[in-house]
Write a structure and sequence with these properties.
It is a single chain. This protein is mainly alpha-helical and 118 residues long. It has one domain: Four Helix Bundle (Hemerythrin (Met), subunit A). α6 runs antiparallel to α7. The longest helix is centred in the C-terminal third of the chain and has 24 residues. The N and C termini lie close together (8 Å). The model has no long low-confidence stretch (mean pLDDT 97).
C-alpha cells in the first residue's frame, strides 16, 4: 500500500498533506505517529467521566491533529463534535461520537495495514 492509497482509503487529502509536510518521508512519519496519539482515548475517558470541558478539549485536539495530517473525514467528524461541545452546555452527542469513532477506527486500521505492507 502506498501513502496515496492510504489517504484514499481514509478519505484524506494526500495533496494537502504533501503541501503541508513537503516530503513523503515526513508524511509517513507523522501519519504513523497518529497510532500513538491518545486524543480519542482522552475523549472516550471524558465521555465516561461526564466531563463536558474535557470532552471539548479532546475533540478539539483530535480535530487539530487530523487537520494537520489532512485526515479529512476524521477532521470533519471531530470538527462537528467540537462545535456541538463548544458551548459546554450539553454532553457529547452520541451519534456524532459514533461517526467520529468509525472515522478514527478507519484511520487506525488503514495505518496498521500500511505498516504491515512495508
Amino acid at each position: 500500500m502506498t501513502l496515496q492509497e492510504l489517504y484514499a482509503k481514509i478519505n484524506g487529502n494526500y495533496a494537502e498533506a504533501q503541501n503541508r509536510l513537503m516530503k513523503e518521508s515526513f508524511i509517513e512519519k507523522f501519519a504513523l505517529m497518529y497510532l500513538k496519539d491518545d486524543s480519542f482515548v482522552s475523549l472516550q475517558n471524558a465521555i465516561s467521566a461526564g466531563s463536558i470541558p474535557d470532552c471539548f478539549r479532546a475533540a478539539h485536539t483530535l480535530k487539530g491533529v487530523a487537520a494537520n495530517l489532512a485526515f479529512t473525514e476524521l477532521q470533519q467528524a471531530a470538527s462537528e463534535l467540537t462545535e456541538q461541545l463548544r458551548p459546554q452546555t450539553a454532553p457529547a452527542d452520541a451519534a456524532m461520537v459514533e461517526v467520529l469513532k468509525v472515522a478514527h477506527e478507519k484511520v487506525v486500521a488503514a495505518l496498521n495495514e500500511y505498516n504491515a505492507s512495508k
